[in-house]
Amino acid sequence: MTGSDPSKDMIDYDPHHWWRHLLKLRGGILQEIVGRLGVFTIWTVAVTWFHLNVHKVDVPATGHTLAGTVLSLLLVFRTNSSYDRFWEGRKLWGGIVNETRNLLRAAALNIRSPDLLRRLAAWTAVYPYAVTRVLRRGGGLGPAAAVLPPAEIERVMASRNAGLAVALRMSAVVAEARQLGFISDIVQMEIDRNVHLLIDYQGGCERIVKTPLPFAYMLHLRRTLIVFILGLPFALVESFGWATVPVILLIAHTFLGIEEIGVEIEEPFGTEDNDLPLEGISESIANTLDELVPWRNQLIASPALSYAGAPTGKEPSSEA
Amino acid sequence: MTGSDPSKDMIDYDPHHWWRHLLKLRGGILQEIVGRLGVFTIWTVAVTWFHLNVHKVDVPATGHTLAGTVLSLLLVFRTNSSYDRFWEGRKLWGGIVNETRNLLRAAALNIRSPDLLRRLAAWTAVYPYAVTRVLRRGGGLGPAAAVLPPAEIERVMASRNAGLAVALRMSAVVAEARQLGFISDIVQMEIDRNVHLLIDYQGGCERIVKTPLPFAYMLHLRRTLIVFILGLPFALVESFGWATVPVILLIAHTFLGIEEIGVEIEEPFGTEDNDLPLEGISESIANTLDELVPWRNQLIASPALSYAGAPTGKEPSSEA
Amino acid sequence: MTGSDPSKDMIDYDPHHWWRHLLKLRGGILQEIVGRLGVFTIWTVAVTWFHLNVHKVDVPATGHTLAGTVLSLLLVFRTNSSYDRFWEGRKLWGGIVNETRNLLRAAALNIRSPDLLRRLAAWTAVYPYAVTRVLRRGGGLGPAAAVLPPAEIERVMASRNAGLAVALRMSAVVAEARQLGFISDIVQMEIDRNVHLLIDYQGGCERIVKTPLPFAYMLHLRRTLIVFILGLPFALVESFGWATVPVILLIAHTFLGIEEIGVEIEEPFGTEDNDLPLEGISESIANTLDELVPWRNQLIASPALSYAGAPTGKEPSSEA
Amino acid sequence: MTGSDPSKDMIDYDPHHWWRHLLKLRGGILQEIVGRLGVFTIWTVAVTWFHLNVHKVDVPATGHTLAGTVLSLLLVFRTNSSYDRFWEGRKLWGGIVNETRNLLRAAALNIRSPDLLRRLAAWTAVYPYAVTRVLRRGGGLGPAAAVLPPAEIERVMASRNAGLAVALRMSAVVAEARQLGFISDIVQMEIDRNVHLLIDYQGGCERIVKTPLPFAYMLHLRRTLIVFILGLPFALVESFGWATVPVILLIAHTFLGIEEIGVEIEEPFGTEDNDLPLEGISESIANTLDELVPWRNQLIASPALSYAGAPTGKEPSSEA
Amino acid sequence: MTGSDPSKDMIDYDPHHWWRHLLKLRGGILQEIVGRLGVFTIWTVAVTWFHLNVHKVDVPATGHTLAGTVLSLLLVFRTNSSYDRFWEGRKLWGGIVNETRNLLRAAALNIRSPDLLRRLAAWTAVYPYAVTRVLRRGGGLGPAAAVLPPAEIERVMASRNAGLAVALRMSAVVAEARQLGFISDIVQMEIDRNVHLLIDYQGGCERIVKTPLPFAYMLHLRRTLIVFILGLPFALVESFGWATVPVILLIAHTFLGIEEIGVEIEEPFGTEDNDLPLEGISESIANTLDELVPWRNQLIASPALSYAGAPTGKEPSSEA
Asked: For residue C154, what are the contacts with CB-CB under 8 A and spacing of at least 6?
């Protein structure tokens, strides 16, 4: 359903190329903060002009020195917290990659029913798209949805939480495998533990989406930043003269840029340039899973790894 | 019982809107620190007036420069620790969301008794309200309590720890399912592990509520902050003149604001503006669980996912 | 045996009350550092007097500015590490709270022998006191010890590690329950996993008690701090005159106080004001567990939650 | 196939030798940043010459002081984040070491088939090479591949994800052991849990490789760094004269070096000097595993540890 | 074999004694850095003499102020990372303490064979010594080795990884207990999970030993430190005169000391003063385990806790 549009992917770059990218606009934060920079520049020009032509309004820089340290710390800590959220989000999606692999690996080796396996593989391939749909409040269920019963897909699309609905269907197939005697309850529980983890990871992503930095934190940081920059011309104008304007522009660029990065990366599941390429990851999961199901048939046919039991039918297991 | 009052929810905001909110009072910390700012302003006015009109009392700023770095660090680290507690609290509630989902998912697929399932679903929907009642020392058990036996609800309300009492009732339903032969001990233990995790998460929340920052830490930070700001007029008055007053007001606003944020977010389970929306989360858990129980019936009826065993009665399982 | 003496508890306070506590001595660190402050004040008076009356001994403040940043960082990082240890210790005790609850919850629902359950509940209630005895190198086993065989209690008191000895007795009761056919090995292992976790948490606490900050770290920090403060009068005396004395007193108070907080909280299992209220937590565990055992009888009697099996005797379980 | 080329290994050094290595080029970052240093030196020379001979262009250093703190913080935090990634990568490989050991230990003691055990040992020894192949997008499967069926090896080499393909074959051997009645499903699940963990660790490594620092973060840091250094001559030239050139060279070396270290270590799976010695680790895993399989025979022959059952054939286990 | 030599233990100290230890040499880092301090002092004397007697060579301190912040941050972050490694190492050994306790506790209650139990206890007591042997590349297997078959001990001593070899023997005893019908596969797997954890912890320690801080990080930090201190006399000499020498000595002591602490504690498994007392921990593990085995006999004999089954022989368990 949804193809992977490369222009929507996270920017991939080689950090060893130092000079490249420096003038790039896309993915940077310049276009985001240019309005704010304009406001502060106009203010600086006005204060400087007033100071030089009308009346001296300079103060010493001691106040800025004292407040600058605490503001810098707060700013960088905030951006660091945002990066931790970004990285946690990435880890959660990494967990989704891992557990879909583990689930289908365990199933492929223990559930000896091609039909059940195919259904399980399809739902598993749909799962990351369903999580994306939850996190982005919209979106389709990916190409694997085409091989599943349309009525079921419709129910999933209509449910409150598509991820949860798909996970339930995955668990249902595993439960069915036990009902039909393909696996024991021990094996069912072990395979189902992967679904358990998938739901944990999905819940972690929802938590990040739903919980921004506490409002008071964001607000105080911004207010302090504004007061700090608005006051800066008074502290610099006497010694810098008209050089106050470019100097404050650069300082404002530094501070506002750090704040903006914090905003950009604290919720990494959107569709902006610095967000995670959820669709690319989902596609890559589906591709890896695709390899698994034919692989099983190969494996069973391969003499070096052949099973003792008959590969074609349901074996009588001791537990069932 | 308790409805979700939107005015009590955490402030949800879009951090990409930069200028919006800046003048908002609600959710910010200005109203909290305005008294302190007043005290320090009066002091600054007094010192400045005394210095300019009676007798010079200025000292160099070297002392403030040296102490400013360590104070800034301590302040920002403290606020960061509070944020870690906030985020840990959010994670614990995220865990409660996840495990209620996992518990009912596993139960829906393995316990083939509509009656037991309904009871388990109701207790599970009550659970987050019960935890909220423990954390806020009061509050009802939510709408799902209406479908449970009033005598049981009364016992829960009368118990020392409502969360624990509800968790026990959830475990009891699962144990009953094994007694009646619906599930094996393996499956019982696996489902019960979700209750285990719920109790761990609840315990984590209680720990955060019951353990503030060590008293000595808070006290030393505040004393140092007060001494630092009270001393500031002496260091600035000679070079700033009457500008000392607004400059110190802004510096005090910066420092006191950071400290106040630390206080606001270190215990995120209350009912203040920056606290977590526990009622909203509880409601949303209940809604998701509601979807699960009818879903099971659907699933069993759906031919593509139908079970081999009879969906209406108790099946003879190999373990029982 | 040991009652909860409120004067030994951690100070509980409401961080929203800003001005309160500021003049409190108890729980603060002033009485700890007052001797050091005295030494440095005498030194400062001596240097200032010598400088003003005998011979100029001032140096510029550049050295202190350069060393001040690194010293501040080291100091605050150290205090932060201590806070991490404090919080880890609190988490470990939180884990003890959780697992005693989980253990008795699982036992109450699965072990249908009032006698075994009562013994298990008593040992579980004794456990946190036993851990406290290990961490504080002394202390009794709490009120629940009175209902246990005195010979056993004596053996526990005589053992090298009372916590471990009690944990073993808890495991022994669970093992006995399986021997007697009340539970299967699956259920035994699952309940015993809680004991496993309890021993892990206890071991974590012992680790914190036995491992202070590396000696070289503590020593270098203190030496640097002393040199820094001893050198400070030389850097300030020329510009501050006699104001050097109060200024250095306040700076020393700031720095020494941060170091002292690090010392106070790095080992939070003692009986000082800022230590964790282990006895209060132990009592609260015992109270919660007390509710569990009668609760079980209630539960079994309650028709809405009644078991199919006979509640009065040992049921024949399918596993035994 | 791939031998361990010592020149490709991570540099091992004794940090206690302080003066050694200082002049080393290999492994340091000097050769990486020498171009950038050249550019900034030429610029500094040009500005200094212009200032001294043509027209004064100096500004005060206040701007650099204010921006310097925030830039330093951002830089060191970034390098710290990179170190966290480095250490996480090392932990993940440590996990691969541990779980290959655990897997073969558990298998050696429970699977009483020399043939299966030998196959499992070979696939396990191949696994770390397969992961290396995934992370470095190329490379062979190591010496143990020689004893495995060439057709299987070819299939692994042709698959999208060699690590996953090998893990599947490991699981397949364990599944086969249960099919043949050597182990129960409980034991199969327990051994397979090691494969589960291996796939988790591999996925963690892939995550680190595929996710650089967010583009905007890297870009803003570099832009700010460039502006900061380009502006530095103006701030220093009046007071430093020609000494501006070496001073700025050293400052630029400090700042650019920290940034470069962040780049070098954020993705530690390559073949550069500061990357992890994946081949050395893989070899060492294979050597340790080699010891395990003959060891089993020893163990079985040893009278003090002999088994009751016959060591030569398949024993009738109670579960099969 | 190896006794515990107290002079090799980590220094245990009471951090509440503030003035004590200050003049201690042992355990501090003074003897390590005294050579470096000498070099920098000679250099400072030379520069000062040259400046005062031959030709002025002073520069302003602005460069040092700008570079000082970033250097301080890098230095303290590095030392903090080393402390994290120290603490992680301590946690891993704490894990070894916990899991040896858990293993023998579970075994003592479930394996009813005095002979097997005695063997298991001996191997478990040997294990921490074996890990120490791996981490320190040498050392004996401790006193418990005396009661084990010398041929086995020899094989362990000859193996590549003594820890792994001992762990295998522990697992082998547990596997034998199942072979002989003392325990079911469920119980075997649960007990063996402790061995699994022991191998994980051991692997974690090996990882810390084998992976120093990335070479480039260490090198850049040292180079920057040297350049910073070598340049310092030029920045201070004009205003400090001969006082430059003691001031730089103290600053160098501060910075070099922090770096040296980072080196001392980043690999805490050696035999230096600030390393962990591995032998003391190993001895204490052995002592605790010693208490366990006789305890079991006591327990079985004690009427209040007696088992229903016959304590003397092998009981017929339902699983075997």
From this structure: none
Look-up: residue for tokens 């974690």?
A: E204
- Give the confidence band of C313 by pLDDT, cuts at 50, 70, 90: very low
The secondary structure of chain C as a DSSP string is: -----GGGSPPP--TT--STTTT--TTSSHHHHHHHHHHHHHHHHHHHHHHHHT------SHHHHHHHHHHHHHHHHHHHHHHHHHHHHHHHHHHHHHHHHHHHHHHHHH---HHHHHHHHHHHHHHHHHHHHHHHT-----GGGGGS-HHHHHHHHHSS-HHHHHHHHHHHHHHHHHHTTSS-HHHHHHHHHHHHHHHHHHHHHHHHHH--S-HHHHHHHHHHHHHHHHHHHHHHHHHHGGGHHHHHHHHHHHHHHHHHHHHHHSSTTSSSTTS--HHHHHHHHHHHHHHHHHHHHHHHH-GGG--SS-SSS----TT-
CB contact under 8 A, C68 and B73: no
Q: Do A73 and B68 lie within an 8 Å CB cutoff?
A: no
Could you give the CA distance from residue D2 to residue D129 in angstroms, rounded to a whole number? 9
Written as tens digits, the pLDDT of chain A (320 aa) is 333 444 445 677 888 888 887 877 777 788 889 999 999 999 999 999 999 999 999 999 999 999 999 999 999 999 999 999 999 999 999 999 999 999 999 999 999 888 999 999 999 999 999 999 999 999 999 999 999 999 999 999 999 999 999 999 999 999 999 999 999 999 999 999 999 999 999 999 999 999 989 999 999 999 999 999 999 999 999 999 999 999 999 999 999 999 999 999 998 998 888 889 999 999 999 888 887 776 555 554 443 333 333 333 333 333 32
Q: Which chains touch E (3 or more CB pairs under 8 A)?
A: C, D
Please name the residues in contact with A74: beta carbons below 8 A apart, sequence gap of 6 or more.
A221, A224, B76, B79, B258
Give tens-digit pLDDT for B100-135: 999 999 999 999 888 999 999 999 999 999 999 999
Q: Are D60 and D92 in contact (CB under 8 A)?
A: no
The angle formed by the CA atoms of residues E56, E58 and E60, to the nearest 5 degrees, is 150
Other beta carbons within 10 Å of C176: 23
| B94: CB partners within 8 A, 6+ apart | A203, A204, A206, A207
E4 pLDDT higher than 70 = no
* E54 Cβ contact list (under 8 Å, min separation 6): none
* B213: DSSP letter: S
Q: What's the number of CA atoms in the CB half-sphere (13 Å) around residue B60? A: 15
If you measure CA to CA, which chain B residue comes closest to C264? Answer: B216
- Write out chain B residues lying below 8 Å of A215, CB-based: 10-11, 13, 21, 27-28, 273-274
* Contact between chains at A254 and D71 (C-beta distance less than 8 A): yes
Whether B169 and chain C come into contact, CB under 8 Å, resolves to yes
E220 lies within 8 A of chain D by CB: yes
List Cα–Cα distances, C149 to C123, D269, E220, in angstroms: 11, 60, 65
* CB–CB contact C215 E27 (8 Å): yes
Check: CB of residue D205 under 8 Å from CB of residue D267: no
* Yes or no, beta carbons of E199 and D98 under 8 Å apart: yes
